[in-house]
Amino acid sequence: MQVRHDCLILFNRYEGFRRPEPPPRERAYSGELSDHARARLRKAFDLFLQLFPPRVIENKATKRKQLFRAALVTLTIPSSKIVSLRQGNRDLLQPFLRHLRAPGRAYIWKAEAQKRGQLHYHIVYSHFAHYDEVRVRWNRILKRKGLLDEFARKHHHFNPPSTRVESVRNVRRMGAYFEKYLAKQEVTNLGEGKVWDCSKGLKVNRFSFDLSSSQLHMITSAAAQAKCVLRETENAIVVAGNRKPLSLLNRFYRTRYEAWRKDTLEGLS
After folding, report:
1. Cβ–Cβ contacts within 10 Å for residue 255, how many?
2. Cβ contacts of residue 208 below 8 Å, gap of 6+?
3. Do residues 135 and 163 make contact, with C-beta atoms less than 8 angstroms apart?
4. pLDDT exceeds cutoff 60 at 24
5. How many CB atoms lie within 10 A of CB 124?
6. pLDDT of residue 18
7. Fewer CB under 10 Å: which end of the chain, C or N?
8. How many CA atoms lie within 13 A of 228 on its CB side?
9. Alpha carbons 253 and 130: distance in angstroms, whole number
10. DSSP letter string, 5-48
């Protein structure tokens, strides 16, 4: 059985069955989001939601407590000089991501081309990010690369509104953000390079464990009775995250799930 943030997948597995491993192939980053890359991105996003549930934090600026799920960060380049994908990833994005990397934290980023053809980035970050700190750090990187000179000549300062930060509280908003920004498959038209990536800790397998036939029957019966079976195939049953089936599963997986989550969080950096 595989546990995701919004559903359970109950697999029918045969003893001794192993999926054949694909032959090794040389990686080539074409600047496009392929179907395979999109599936890996969705998996990383799903793991992100599993590892970082909603929690109450203290806003450093207001000193007030607030419900928090993730920070959605947008980074833009206010220059008419078009930056290639490879150059932007190396010279702009990577220096910025160094400030986000820390034990127990995670991020997912996606590159896009704006309508005017310029590169920009969308980042989902696991912890609170203050908009002033984000803007100062990003503009400092842009200034070092001469990408604010044009703006400064016109406005006489080096602090353009080049970033946007939004704190999210619920999964629905996160799902909408994923479909609108992260899951787009269009060509970036910015040359070769990575279109997306994430923290190393988000590249692990989803949490899963084995059920006995009696346990499997108990869960599927409860799911059918609660009318929360989303999809059923020959090899798997997808069950919505309904309270009744999940409460039955607590005794089967809760301890193992918490151990998996702790180990995975410790591996994040």
Report:
1. 10
2. 1, 2, 3
3. yes
4. no
5. 26
6. 45
7. C
8. 18
9. 36
10. SSEEEEE---TT--PPPPPP-----BSS--HHHHHHHHHHHHHH
**Residue-level length of the chain:** 269
Are β-strands 119-125 and 107-113 bridged in parallel, bridged antiparallel, or unpaired? Answer: antiparallel
Both structure tokens of 88:
């932007």
Residue 76 phi, psi dihedral angles, 5° rounding? -120, 170
Average pLDDT over residues 73-85: 93
Stretch (H or E) spanning 109: strand 107-113
Average pLDDT, the chain: 79
Question: What is d(CA 261, CA 201) in angstroms, rounded to the nearest whole number?
Answer: 11
Measured between alpha carbons, how far is 262 from 254 in angstroms, rounded to an integer? 12
Is the pLDDT at 217 greater than 90? The verdict is no
Amino acid at 97: L
pLDDT above 80 (res 19): no
Q: Shortest CA distance to 2 belongs to which of 46, 54, 53? A: 46
* Residue written as token pair 């990577």: 94
